[in-house]
Specification:
Layout: E1 3-8, H1 30-37, E2 40-45, H2 62-75, E3 82-86, H3 88-100, E4 105-109, H4 118-123, H5 128-145, H6 149-152, H7 156-166, H8 171-174, E5 182-187, H9 195-199, H10 204-207, E6 210-213, H11 220-223, H12 225-233, H13 235-238
Helix pairs in contact: 2-3
């Protein structure tokens, strides 16, 4: 019998509902999913606002996304062997594990654990009117000056949720996990989520659960799919 694996996708703005007719947020990494499906029973979630998934009335934070995963598993009476989270999905997998199932094995691929953006985190602590003004100015700056595609193409829900998740630092959360149920996979040359920011700030027990793929960037699922699957296959052996 094949082991079951649930995939949590990353924050790819090209998968916004308004940008695509696709119903699958893993469409851009379908070769990886197909290769994985030869060895595992694969399940996938589209998060709200992606590939036609309905948006709620209020923005999400990571706890909300983790609860979304919990509901998906409960509603489908599904128990999986692994949850694999890619980039932003890795942050969601980590939160789900800590909040709902500390025995769940999780595989974090190019995970957004830390972004080293303390200043942007502190900016929202200003109370009252000034806080709202700063948020408006910040969003205008990101859309019209920086031309950040995540903000330019996002709905109100997606933009607010995006701002919530990019401020969350998860190094401390990572240290709460039993290393035996964790595997982290980074590309050595990842220019979106610097693996050294994690490697240099975690315990040796967690470091031992980090696999680095030489020559890989952030999109290692497309460039090194066989290597990722090999690491997943050896999950139990590496403990």
């Amino acid at each position: 019998m094949k082991k079951k694996i649930l995939l949590l996708h990353g924050w790819n703005w090209k998968n916004y509902t308004s940008m695509t007719n696709s119903k699958d947020a893993w469409e851009n990494r379908k070769d990886f999913v197909n290769a994985l499906g030869k060895e595992y029973d694969v399940y996938k979630i589209n998060f709200p606002g992606f590939c036609g998934e309905k948006e709620p009335n209020k923005p999400f934070n990571l706890e909300d996304y983790a609860y979304y995963v919990k509901n998906y598993l409960q509603n489908n009476s599904l128990k999986v062997d692994y949850i694999l989270g890619y980039s932003f999905g890795g942050a969601v997998a980590l939160k789900y594990h800590l909040l709902y199932d500390k025995n769940q094995k999780i595989i974090l691929v190019s995970p957004a654990i830390t972004r080293n953006k303390t200043k942007s985190k502190n900016m929202i602590k200003t109370p009252g009117f000034m806080q709202k003004l700063r948020i408006v100015l910040r969003d205008w700056y990101l859309k019209h000056i920086i031309k950040n595609p995540y903000m330019m193409h996002g709905t109100k829900f997606l933009n607010a949720s995006y701002q919530n998740i990019v401020r969350e630092e998860l190094i401390d959360d990572l240290e709460k996990i039993n290393p035996n149920v964790l595997k982290i996979i980074y590309g050595l040359d990842d220019d979106q989520v610097n693996p050294n920011l994690v490697i240099n700030n975690v315990s040796n027990d967690i470091k031992k659960r980090i696999a680095i793929i030489e020559g890989g960037g952030h999109d290692i699922a497309n460039t090194h799919k066989e290597k990722i699957i090999e690491i997943i296959d050896n999950f139990e052996k590496d403990v």
